[in-house]
Structures
1.
Amino acid sequence: ARTGSPSARGGWGPGACSGAGGPTACSCGGGGGGPPAPPHASGGYRRYAWTGADADCRLWFRMQAEARRLDVETDRNGNQWAWLGDPAAGDAVVTGSHLDSVPDGGAFDGPLGVVSAFAALDELRSRGVSFKRPLAIVNFGDEEGARFGLACVGSRLTSGQLTKEKAFELRDADGISLPQAMEAAGHDPEAIGHDPERLSRIGAFVELHVEQGRALDLSGDPVGIASAIWPHGRWRYDFHGEANHAGTTRLVDRRDPMLPYAETVLSARREAELAGAVATFGKIAVEPNGVNAIPSLVRGWLDARAADQESLDTVVAGIEAAARAHAVRQGVDLAVVRESFTPVVEFGHALRDEMSRLLGESTGDKVPVLGTGAGHDAGILSASIPTAMLFVRNPTGVSHSPAEFAAEDDCVAGVRALADVLEGLACR
Ligand code: GLV
Ligand code: MN
Ligand code: MN
């Protein structure tokens, strides 16, 4: 923590990146300066995969790594790695997170984990420790899935949970395919896919992340350890009706897909309450999207999550049944497609317990263990390698919003905790 504030909004963090232009418009060279000015009116970031904003963040990562004399590489799937030691030696300890964002995202979700990783390395160097295992800092590509609709594309490809063929089918809202976007950003899409060789070199991955709830605020702790990630998924609902004139079409003659869509949003809320789950329609596309036209198509995306698979199945089935009934009543056709799914993740006890022990040793405190409804690359990789997560207190719990926040003291506590864990894993 000696290199300055690890706050993601700090002058040297990727919060300083302009989301608007290409790398040349970037003020993220790490040179300090005043607080960065987020480029969007909301105060949030729009750092989508394989865009100029993404390139800005990648450039920032490279500069931070090179300033620390780390070897930087981009893997076949577009994830960036900064190595201390020889990757081929194996059993590496890896830390990091992601730098992309949701639409109008906050400064901490993702960047805090990457910034803290660099700061923790600085802290370890200032402690004068020697490394017995290779250490890497990683920036996973396209964690949020804001552009192509699928979350954790970089880690899913690497772990084999997303095939090259399926990845090639992904398209953004403008119809640009993932391989086209990769190619335009200078990355060879032909090489993407399962990378067991890379995974075999990793002994442990620890991701630090801002908490996306208020458990730590309520318990009064700056840092916690993750226990589990709820099963979750995304479903696309296509309500097909009939376009017609908004002024001249009698109400009884309409096949308006907006009506069953609106009723389905309310049903989702009800079903989630009944199942003790959460369900959200947060994204919608309307065709033809004219103020004076009845829509021909309303496409809504459902994000549903629950503490266990049975509750998730219940809420998802309940919402679909309600949507079909609403659609029939309005003479509208409905197609539902599951676009992605992530099963429950239980982080392995061996690494978790080791982290608790290391943090207990350094602070004398028992570190709380908490679950989360948010998805992470650590959750994806947990199927292939030992992974664990540290959470840093978020006083309001707000996330995926410009209001996302963590206090500087808590960010420093997060860096110290990460450094303690890395020291215990890589230096003893
Ligand atoms: C990612 O942050 C997610 O939980 O969707
Ligand atoms: Mn997120
Ligand atoms: Mn995240």
Note: Residues 144, 151, 374-375 surround glyoxylic acid (ligand 1) (CB under 6 Å).
2.
Amino acid sequence: MEHKIDAYNNILELIGNTPLVKLNRIADQLTGNFYAKVEAFNPGHSSKDRIAAYIIEEAERKGILTEGSTIIETTSGNTGFSIAMVSIIKGYECILAVSSKSSKDKIDMLRSMGAKVYICPAHVSADDPRSYYQVAKRLHEETKGSIYINQYFNELNIEAHYKTTGPEIWKQTNGNITHLIACSGTGGTISGTARYLKEQNPKVKVIGVDAFGSVLKKYHETKEFDANEIYPYRIEGLGKNLIPSATDFELIDKFIKVTDEESAHTAREISKTEGLFVGYTSGAVMQAVKQLDAEGEFGKNSNIVVIFPDHGSRYMSKVYSDDWMNDQGFFDTKNVEEAQQIEFIK
Ligand code: PMP
């Protein structure tokens, strides 16, 4: 006789239904009530588990994928990790074409999750056959029964959040949410969540967080793609140098930009005040909240939900490294006391 054991069948059953956590000390001086949707509780430690599982399962429903099929994507970031994770459980091959700029740590992490990684030269243009876009496209065309996730241009990216993140937040706030604030990279998270929330209550205000060096905010305001807006920045995962069709700009009320430096300090502050070890873009979204608060955006009865997309452990050699912070000049303007406190006993 089989004993009744209270266990999940596999880790995919743990995707989604992430907790909403009240923010306390970091929001002390702000007007309103602040809640974070903590996406690091997903088994792959980021919001990207949702789209990886959803897009792959949609392809299964359509009969495109069969056992041993191949999933292809062009990212060394969270999406790559989530796709690799889902592929393991479902028995697919995972191929990731990534830029030669990607850190060794990231590539090792993806390979540890069984992905086959193609490292493509970073300096070539997007239409060069060696670029990671073209390599992914070619592999997709050559591999029968494969799917190309193409997260920036895939409507299913929005749909994944429309079906999961949106309803979860609506339920968790009992419909009392007034503001949604989220970083916009592909735009899937903010667009899908906003679409659901605005269908329930069109008054929910949706604010996207963008980087200096990205085209999204200006495009939203003017419908113009301005290449002069583009320059390098350090935060990974928000902002873009192209207009992703996975962003529904109509659903976003406004964009706000944040700096690399303030976002990094704010990420460290969240960890130290809330005990929530979060990634760089969680710092960015909270930095945006501080700026919006200073502009008088919120009232005392506002219920603001922010999305914290991933976990701090992915940023040990960046935001959580004092050496890295110092190299960026991020400790020049702020008190160095903020550096990690270490005492060496001799
Ligand atoms: N933060 C991080 C760390 C991410 O990896 C991403 C995804 N690019 C985002 C925020 C933004 O999410 P989305 O792509 O759904 O806009």
Note: The chain has eleven helices and ten strands.
3.
Amino acid sequence: MSRKYEDRIQELLNKMTLQEKVGQLRQCGPSLVGAFEVSFEELLDMMFDGRITQEEFARLMGTAKQDFREDDLRDGRIGSYNGIGDAATANRLQKIAVTETRLGIPLLFGYDVIHGFRTVTPIPLAESCAWEPELWERTGRMAAEEATAAGVHMTFAPMVDVSKDARWGRISEGAGEDTLLAGLYGAAKVRGFQGDDLSAADSMAACVKHFAAYGAAEAGRDYNRVDMSMQRLWEEYLPPYKACIEAGARAIMPAFNDINGVPCSVNEWLLKEVLREKWGFDGMTVSDANAIAECVNHGVARDRAEAAALALEAGMDMDMTSEVYIENLEKLVTEGQVKEESLDRAVADILRIKFELGLFDHPYRTDEERQSRAMLKPKYRSLAREAAVKSMVLLKNDAASGEMLLPLDKSKKIAVFGELASSKSEMTGAWAIGAEGNDCVSLTEALEAEGILFTYTEGICNGKVDRGAIEENAANADVLLIAMGEHKEESGEAASRADISIPEVQMKLLEALAAFSKPVVVLLFNGRPLTLSRVHEKATAVLEAWHPGVEAGNALVDILYGKENPSGKLTATFPFASGQCPMYYAHMNTGRPGGKSKFTSKYLDTPLEPVYPFGYGLSYTSYEYRDLKIEKKEKAFLVSVYVKNVGSRAGEEIVQCYVQDKAAKRVRPVKLLKAFDKVRLEAGEEKQVCFTVPFEELGYYDWNMKYVVEDGEFVFYVGKNSSDCLNASVILERSERR
Ligand code: NOJ
């Protein structure tokens, strides 16, 4: 634990009144006042349940004013704000905190910078498909440079919730289904956000979320319970949060869900034993929005006061917007129902971060001038374009007239269909609150800028395929290009889907186009894996573009016309049917692995295999693997393989290394990702790719929760994706394990 600021923290604690202490624990969002008499939440509900129209909602919002509760701020009753993304407002409030409160303690401004602030990069699930920690760090740094210029001190990111269930809308916000990838992704983002020195004006503290296992919500329904074995929690879900803390993340957000019956917001085991005692975390915890109060709904607290007491005693430092701390803690401490020592510990955690951010010496880390110069710089746009290109995954590319359909030749006449092809705002994806849709380049704009002649038809009118409109354009084109998928509201928070197929009307449009017997390219914009068997069948080529961010159209044109060679690979399995969810590559075998005979583990009505497996992705060139070798070093296996680019153009191949513990005392996954590398190969070039896999990383938690590495046979799988690998087996002797 860093002791650097402890004396100053203690000095402040000695001076603080109870009210001031509780105030430090309060994070407010600006409330909206003025034009309506109901709360903002109620107003939102009114719009969603149809009592008012979207237009009425927008009109009311337009006349509303933000209330920052400045009187409370002056009284030392606010320690932090959430959701303020402009330097002028932040500095104005900071000035009140620093010059008008009794102790002059600066405010902390938190904001959701999930995939870029103004320069929006691909959604995290997409960016993870680049399998490139160095890229993740660079885009994190860019986000920090912009966000801090707008007054942000802390981002509620990275989200490292492993999710194996594509029904869960928030799978879009993380790195997919694999534990190793989620940890590497998260650690890289932490480094990018925080930089080398947290007190630098362009560094922001990372708040890792959502601790823990939020991505395992039962049935993929958001906020739902999580009930799992301790072994699974420790092996599959906890490591990414730990990786972020080891990378230096200074804050962590407990999740909305319960784990085995105890909501994370009041889960002392999680927040104290695991986080503080086992992992040595000395940063701050901040609740999810309203989550402490929601412990009453969970049914673990009788009322808001009890929820506040439980959360504080469990180790929750800051209350994000539920107001239960400010309403109750003073009284609870005075009456002896909550220990003042617990309150002091929470205040200390928050003050420590404020000191580390340098806020006591430089409370105003930015100004309007810096903000106006900081956004959407050309170098940021080019990084966003690089990230978008690297995130896209080529799922299918069949031959048309003798050669692969993609990349397209500029001489081909193309006809573009689908509203997503011309949409700018849809390109940002979920959770891009600092974004301006107009900043995005749509596909049709990018095609125009590239000087490509094309026709454009939305193709769907009033919920029906507009056959008249598609007829002429499709008939006159050489290649048909259709944009399909999900709108940005269809993934992200509170956007779970029980059916993850493409909407039927879009399928009808695709079928209508396929009937022209011309090559069809499907471009997919979506925030989660979808069931694509019908798309795969009808299309000649399929490119997964996700929600690619501000440079969407440019990145697409780069790939479609071959300026760039696609290299992304999926970090989440694309199931055949929604009913297979959760579906993931690292599954267990069962005693009756799925097969042809009746009494095996399978469904009667869907194939066993996914449409696209984890790790899958094509390129405009192709690669061959040979000579997989496993050697033993002192404490690790050295795995090597030769990879050759056997096509006619340069490319980057993501080489994946999985392992299976063949026979252990507990059931182990059929394959588990242990290492990967992205290698650039010129046409015809061959390279040897090597991985070191320490014996120590081959273990698991046994029945008694002891981490063990067993001797015996291990099978290594190295290849292009989780189901296309070479394999070789090796014996780890008992004497070699340690
Ligand atoms: C709720 C979300 O779960 C969380 O991810 C986000 O950071 C907070 N709201 C704050 O906006």
Note: The pocket of 1-deoxynojirimycin is lined by residues 82, 112, 156, 209, 288-289, 493 (CB under 6 Å).
4.
Amino acid sequence: MKKIVFSGVQPTGNLHLGNYLGALKNFVSLQHEAECIYCVVDLHAITTFQDPKTLRSNIFETTAAFIASGIDDSKNIIFNQSSVSGHAELSWILSCVSRMGWLNRMTQFKDKAGKDKEKASVGLYIYPNLMAADILLYKATHVPVGADQKQHLELSRDIAQKFNNDFKVRNFFPIPEPLIPKNISRVMSLRDGTKKMSKSEESDYSRINLSDNPDLISKKIKKAKTDSGNIPDNIKELEKRSEAFNLLNIYSEIVGQKLEKALNEMSGKDFSFLKDKLSEVLVEKICPIGKKMDKLMQDKSHLENIIKKGTEKANIKAEENIKKIREIIGFV
Ligand code: TYM
């Protein structure tokens, strides 16, 4: 079976180190081995209210982040979800395949809806069905994501399986494989090593944004929470200390070293040593991306062209599959 890669990022601003290490970095490496489709998932973004002007700007910014991270738009498809109507159409169809019981188990809905889930949008509740539609619309076989999306991916697999069984079309939808980074699948907050780094966290000091300048990166790393001990000499001990574990994990991922090797370099030292080194490598890796994003954002018509070109290509693929799906279901 041909390898087809699909993934998406929400245009909700504040793209951060978690998005980069959990997703974008892998998007870039996969482009050398497969056909890749990368989507700015604006339909997902509106499951919570978005100011229209800000949304528009964030769609461009996310597109710019794809390009600035190193995705080649001439070889891959980069587009925004709402421009290809197949996503919404398949989402409805799959909402009729997906089960309430399955959606009720989604922990991200519980987290995002909070205590007052009666007031959450219906879109937020059925959001995992839309995610399944995104993937299955292109019959994607592989989906690079961070660990927080694992449960949604499992749901996509269940939906694909049920559709194939219900309509007796064995192997029509491939069962998509999640590609979750092995070493750092979840980048944690700089303020609390037990919480994931997130764009919606109130404190900007909890995350490194792709747009942060060198000074701000150093400040944030200096202020990052640690404990009172020195850096341990073994991974077992490190794993018990969530903030230390997170900082070392980030360091080893950015420099492209095994965690053991990074730990050897740092063990016995105090945190200021690690923090200095970490700031240095982060500035080296992240700032050029931010600068490139800035530059791209100054030329909206160039970004618009990239999206337009990607949308055309995505639409052709989506229409072809939607046509078959309509036939399978029995629509005339
Ligand atoms: P989103 O926009 O929240 O995040 C985009 C990608 O970044 C990853 N990520 C992280 N990885 C590691 N550590 C973190 N702290 C961290 N925070 C975010 C996410 O796992 C994701 O890969 N529902 C998805 C978007 C989506 C999608 C899809 C993904 C819509 N349709 C189809 C794959 C396939 C989301 O909200 O990602």
Note: The first helix runs from residue 17 to 30.
